[in-house]
C-alpha cells in the first residue's frame, strides 16, 4: 500500500448512518472512546465529510462568482476532542476550495457574530461559521452548530448537509482516505473583538461612563467551559470586582460540575460562591455560552421562569406591549406576570430554542411585534441582537440595568433586578417526569415511537375533555396542557427521543399528585409506556 508510507496514520473507515447524527438544528455524536456502549461516531473522516458537506451547501447558497473565495470561521468550546475535530473540519472546508479562519476557544454566539462583523483586518465577515460544541453533554460527546449571516441553520439545512456528507464519505470509502494538511488556514483572535463589543454596549447604556460597574462585586462560574472570558474581558474593564469567580479555566473533563444553568449542582455552586464572597451578583454560563442564568445577592436563583420574567420586564420597559415568545413548559404564573403586571403578551410555543426564535421572527413578519424569544433552558434571543441566543448578551442586559440604575441614582446592587420580578407567582411544586416508550414492546404494533406517542397524547386529550375538574388549554402548540387543582400539567413528546416528558406545577404536593394520577389513569392502557417515574411520584 503506497499510502502506508505517509507520516499520518490512516484511520480505518466504517459505514456510517449520517442522518443519525442530526439533533434538530445541531449535529451531535461521540468523539472520544472509553465510555462503554458509546462507540465513536464523530471520527476524523466523518467530521471532514460533514465540513465538506457544509462547504458544498454554502457554495450553493452563496452562488458567488469564481473571483471571490468564500471563507469559513471555526471555533470550539473546551472539550478534549476540540483540537482534533477543528483540524478535521479545517481539512474538510479547505478541500472544497474555501478559506479557513480558526478562532480557537470561542463561544457559539461569537461564531454567529463573525458572519456580521465587517472588518477585513480580522478577515470578517465570514461567509459561514462552525462552532464545535455539544453544549452541556458529557466529555466524550461533541458536535457542530452552523451559521451564516441569516442566523443558525435549521433542521432541513442540517439534513441537506448530512446527505452531502454521506456522499462525500462514500467517496472516501471507494477511493481511500488520507489526511492532507490544510494550507489555507489563518488564525484570528475574534473573541477580543466580540468581548470589546459587549463592553461598549454596557458603557453606552450607562451614558458612556468608562467604568459603570465600579464597586460592583460580580462572580462568574464558567463550569470549565468557554465562558471564562466574561470575568476578565467584560466585567473587569467595566470596573467590576470579580474575585471569587470560579471554574474559569477551560477543562473539557468538566471536573467541578456540568456547565448547565438548569443543573441543580451548577446553580448550587454559583449560589454558594455569591454568598461566600458577599457578591452583588452571580453569573453562570453553559459550555458554549449560548445559555446563562444569574443569582442575586441573597442567593436567589434567577433562572428558568424567573429569568424569563426578568428579561420580559427589561424588554417591556423598552418596548411596551410587545409579545414575549417562550417554550411550552413555562408556568401559568409567568403568563399572568407578563400580561397583567407588565402589560405584555405571552405567546407560549414549543420546546426547542430554534422553534422559539423562529416563531418570534414569524410573528414580526405578520405584524405582531416581538422583541424577546426565550426558553426555560436559558436560551434567550433579542430582536436587537439579530435574534441570536447569546448567554453573554442576556447577562449584558442585566448589567445595563444595574449600571443605568446606579447612574440615575436608583440604587446599587442586584435588588434592582430582584424588584423587577416582584409579583411573579411561583408554584410550591414543580417537577418533570420522563415517561419512556419501549420501542421493542409489541404494543407499538409496527408504529414508530413518534406515532405511538401521538396516540398517547390523543387519548389523554380525549379523556380530559369529559372531566369537569380539568380544563384543556385552548391555545396550545405542543402536547396536551391542562389546568386543574390550582396548577397545571403538560404531557408532550420529546423533540428527539422516545420519551414523553410530563411537567407538573401545583400549589402543593397533594395537588400535584392529583394531576399526576389523572395522567396515570388516562395512559395506563398504553403498555409500551414506562410510567414508573410517575407511579413513584404519585405514591402516598
UniProtKB/TrEMBL annotation:
Record-linked InterPro entries: A-D-PHexomutase_a/b/a-I, A-D-PHexomutase_a/b/a-I/II/III, A-D-PHexomutase_a/b/a-II, A-D-PHexomutase_a/b/a-III, A-D-PHexomutase_C_sf, Alpha-D-phosphohexomutase_SF, Phosphoglucosamine_mutase
Signal peptide feature range: none
A single GO cellular-component term on record: chloroplast stroma
Catalytic reaction equation(s): O-phospho-L-seryl-[protein] + alpha-D-glucose 1-phosphate = alpha-D-glucose 1,6-bisphosphate + L-seryl-[protein]; alpha-D-glucose 1-phosphate = alpha-D-glucose 6-phosphate; alpha-D-glucose 1,6-bisphosphate + L-seryl-[protein] = O-phospho-L-seryl-[protein] + alpha-D-glucose 6-phosphate
Domain of life: Eukaryota
Top-tier EC class: isomerase
Keywords: Carbohydrate metabolism, Glucose metabolism, Isomerase, Magnesium, Metal-binding, Phosphoprotein
Cofactor(s) the protein requires to work: Mg(2+)
Alphabetized GO MF terms: metal ion binding; phosphoglucomutase activity; phosphomannomutase activity
Biological process, per Gene Ontology: glucose metabolic process
Family annotation (SUPFAM superfamilies): Phosphoglucomutase, C-terminal domain, Phosphoglucomutase, first 3 domains
Entry's EC annotation: 5.4.2.2
Domain Alpha-D-phosphohexomutase alpha/beta/alpha: 24-166, 197-299, 304-405
Family: Belongs to the phosphohexose mutase family.
Description of how the protein assembles with itself and partners: Monomer.
Protein name: phosphoglucomutase (alpha-D-glucose-1,6-bisphosphate-dependent)
Amino acid at each position: 500500500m503506497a499510502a502506508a508510507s505517509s507520516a499520518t496514520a490512516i484511520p480505518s473507515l466504517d459505514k456510517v448512518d449520517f442522518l443519525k447524527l442530526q439533533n434538530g438544528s445541531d449535529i451531535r455524536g461521540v468523539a472520544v472512546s472509553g465510555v462503554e456502549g458509546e462507540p465513536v461516531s464523530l471520527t476524523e473522516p466523518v467530521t471532514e465529510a460533514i465540513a465538506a458537506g457544509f462547504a458544498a451547501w454554502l457554495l450553493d447558497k452563496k452562488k458567488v462568482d469564481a473571483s471571490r473565495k468564500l471563507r469559513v470561521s471555526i471555533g470550539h468550546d473546551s472539550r478534549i476532542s476540540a483540537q482534533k475535530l477543528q483540524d478535521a473540519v479545517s481539512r474538510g472546508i479547505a478541500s472544497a476550495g474555501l478559506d479557513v479562519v480558526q478562532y480557537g476557544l470561542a463561544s457559539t454566539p461569537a461564531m454567529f457574530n463573525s458572519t456580521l462583523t465587517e472588518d477585513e483586518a480580522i478577515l470578517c465577515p465570514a461567509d459561514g461559521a462552525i462552532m464545535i460544541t455539544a453544549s452541556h453533554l458529557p466529555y466524550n460527546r461533541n458536535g457542530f452548530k452552523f451559521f451564516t449571516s441569516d442566523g443558525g441553520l435549521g433542521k432541513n439545512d442540517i439534513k441537506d448537509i448530512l446527505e452531502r456528507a454521506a456522499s462525500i464519505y462514500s467517496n472516501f470509502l471507494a477511493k481511500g482516505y488520507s489526511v492532507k494538511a490544510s494550507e489555507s488556514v489563518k488564525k484570528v483572535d475574534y473573541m477580543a473583538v466580540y468581548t470589546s463589543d459587549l463592553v461598549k454596549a454596557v458603557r453606552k447604556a450607562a451614558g458612556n461612563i468608562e467604568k459603570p460597574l465600579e464597586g460592583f462585586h460580580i462572580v462568574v462560574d464558567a463550569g470549565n467551559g468557554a465562558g471564562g472570558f466574561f470575568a476578565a474581558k467584560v466585567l473587569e474593564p467595566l470596573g467590576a470586582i470579580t474575585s471569587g469567580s470560579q471554574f474559569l479555566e477551560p477543562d473539557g473533563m468538566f471536573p467541578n460540575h456540568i456547565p448547565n444553568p438548569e443543573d441543580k449542582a451548577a446553580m448550587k455552586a454559583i449560589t454558594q460562591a455569591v454568598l461566600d464572597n458577599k457578591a452583588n451578583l452571580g453569573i453562570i454560563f453553559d459550555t458554549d455560552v449560548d445559555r446563562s442564568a444569574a443569582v442575586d445577592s441573597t442567593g436567589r436563583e434567577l433562572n428558568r421562569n424567573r429569568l424569563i420574567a426578568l428579561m420580559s420586564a427589561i424588554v417591556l420597559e423598552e418596548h411596551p406591549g410587545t409579545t414575549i415568545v417562550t417554550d411550552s413548559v413555562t408556568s401559568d404564573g409567568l403568563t399572568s406576570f407578563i400580561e397583567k403586571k407588565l402589560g405584555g403578551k405571552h405567546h407560549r410555543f414549543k420546546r426547542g430554542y430554534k422553534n422559539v426564535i423562529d416563531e418570534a421572527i414569524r410573528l414580526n413578519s405578520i405584524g405582531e411585534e416581538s422583541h424577546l424569544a426565550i426558553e426555560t433552558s436559558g436560551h434567550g434571543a433579542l430582536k436587537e441582537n439579530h435574534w441570536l441566543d447569546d448567554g453573554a448578551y442576556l447577562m449584558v442586559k442585566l448589567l445595563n440595568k444595574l449600571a443605568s440604575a446606579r447612574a440615575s441614582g436608583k440604587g446599587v446592587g442586584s435588588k434592582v433586578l430582584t424588584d423587577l420580578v416582584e409579583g411573579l407567582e411561583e408554584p410550591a411544586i414543580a417537577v418533570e417526569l420522563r415517561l419512556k416508550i419501549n420501542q421493542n414492546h409489541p404494543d407499538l404494533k409496527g408504529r414508530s415511537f413518534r406515532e405511538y406517542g401521538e396516540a398517547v397524547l390523543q387519548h389523554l386529550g380525549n379523556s380530559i375533555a369529559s372531566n369537569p375538574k380539568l380544563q384543556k388549554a385552548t391555545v396550545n402548540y405542543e402536547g396536551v396542557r391542562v389546568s386543574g387543582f390550582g396548577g397545571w400539567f403538560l404531557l408532550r413528546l420529546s423533540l428527539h427521543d422516545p420519551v414523553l416528558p410530563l411537567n407538573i406545577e401545583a400549589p402543593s404536593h397533594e395537588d400535584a399528585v392529583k394531576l399526576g394520577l389523572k395522567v396515570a389513569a388516562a395512559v395506563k392502557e398504553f403498555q409500551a409506556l414506562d410510567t414508573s417515574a410517575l407511579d413513584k411520584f404519585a405514591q402516598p
